[in-house]
Design goal:
The chain has 174 residues and is mainly beta. Helix content is 13%, strand content 37%.
């Protein structure tokens, strides 16, 4: 396992992106075809839309690259998996405002991503975190490994913020 990102990532509108040269994605396209799997939208080629509880401010964010499917860590409150295939040789984690990017070193091949979250409801209640305020309780983990495509799956859901996005992904209307 290799840690690609371990940092505070600034979110706006509760969004962070993984991009690899794909087209821009709106909220509706991101969840197309995921049948009730919210939080991590992989409906646009070469792109992932990752949702957080906090609407504006910095959140603790980690990205890991694995050789194979990592063991499921049930201590996370929210867990989803979606397929992802980079469409260029450069793949980055990008803040919504574009000020920071982190290179993810992914091959142009099929991958599986597991997006896990804890404290989303706390982040949603806080809504906005100023730079001089202490960190919120919400934190996020994106695990990536090479794998053949499988449908998106909801593995665990405990909070209201996640339930909202899973319901949105059931029938996004643009």
């Amino acid at each position: 396992m290799k840690v690609l990102v371990s940092d505070e990532v600034h979110v706006d509108y509760g969004q962070v992106f993984v991009e690899s040269g794909g087209d821009e994605s709106d909220l509706y396209d991101a969840f197309a075809g995921q049948e009730g799997v919210g939080l991590c939208g992989g409906g646009t080629a070469g792109m992932l839309l990752l949702l957080t509880g906090l609407r504006i401010g910095g959140v603790d964010f980690t990205v890991e690259l694995h050789d194979g499917r990592p063991e499921l860590d049930e201590t996370w409150e929210e867990i989803v998996e979606v397929p992802f295939r980079p469409v260029s040789e450069e793949t980055t984690l990008r803040q919504w405002n574009g000020k920071n990017r982190w290179e993810l070193e992914l091959e142009e091949r099929d991958h599986r991503v597991r997006y896990s979250a804890t404290g989303m409801d706390d982040g949603r209640s806080k809504n906005v975190r100023e730079d001089d305020e202490p960190p919120t309780e919400d934190r996020y983990l994106l695990q990536i490994w090479p794998a053949e495509p499988e449908p998106a799956r909801l593995l665990k859901q405990t909070g209201g913020a996640a339930a909202y996005w899973h319901a949105f992904a059931t029938s996004p209307v643009g």
